[in-house]
Design a protein that fits this description.
Blueprint lengths: L2 H28 L4 H24 L9 H22 L4 H8 L2 H13 L5 H18 L10 H20 L6 H22 L7 H27 L2 H4 L5 H14 L5 H28 L1
Amino acid sequence: MSQLTFAYLLMLLAFLCFAGMDTTAKWLVSAAVPVFQVVWLRYFGHFLCTVVVYMPKHGIGIAKSNKPGLQVVRAMFLLCSTALNFNALHYLPLTTTIAIFFVVPLTVCLLSVPILGEKVGMKRLLAVFIGFLGVLVILEPWGQRFDPHVFLAIGAMLCASGYFVMSRVIAGVDENSTVQFYVSGIATVLLAPLAFYVWQWPDSFHTWFLLTMIGTLGMIGHSVLTRAHQMAEASVLAPTVYSQVIYIAILSWVVFGQPPDQRTIIGTAIIVSSGLFIWYRERQNEQGKT
């Protein structure tokens, strides 16, 4: 098996973990477990993994960043994205929230112009516009079925876009151990008071198991994702994010009895096609520079 093939398999495993994490979160918040408790346990599990894996080698050095302010901003974007997404999962089908999340590459494309100073041609701008039309197909804001809770998912998507833009801004500034420490540590500390204020002790082994699993899935997902990016370029691996379409569709159907409806299927296809086109154009531009 080639290194690239193995990297692809790791990415598919990572997104399976993330799909499982969203499914677990939806089950927990639907079972009346407080959202902030679920979000905190997701990050607390990640933080424990970071400490166990990196502390023995780096010690307190993992807390030393060359750009601590930017690391904090990046971590806050991810924290807000997770909190909004888990809230949205309480009200919306998994297939809807993941479809809205797929707008992230399109939003990042737009934000890269003023923030990163990148040049985006008319073809990519057109692809972004078409992708946003896909969102309108899914949400149908003019129809009676429109659910205002989609604004939670949109907020999560915008915060995730900020997270990815900040990831580009600080790329290579710190070691991965420091990056993971800030992402998981800041969320764990900030959310602890809220989590303990609303804390509810699980009343069944099943709930205990899922609360443990949500942190474990996040830990495994981020670990294999990091490993995959050590083996292949991010731009090569980027399309694997859309594997979540299949994972989420199956999990939503099996666990919650919510198969994707026609609007979601059509809208998601439009968004994914736009995202893949932008990825293709970026790959062309990168190859043209080499």
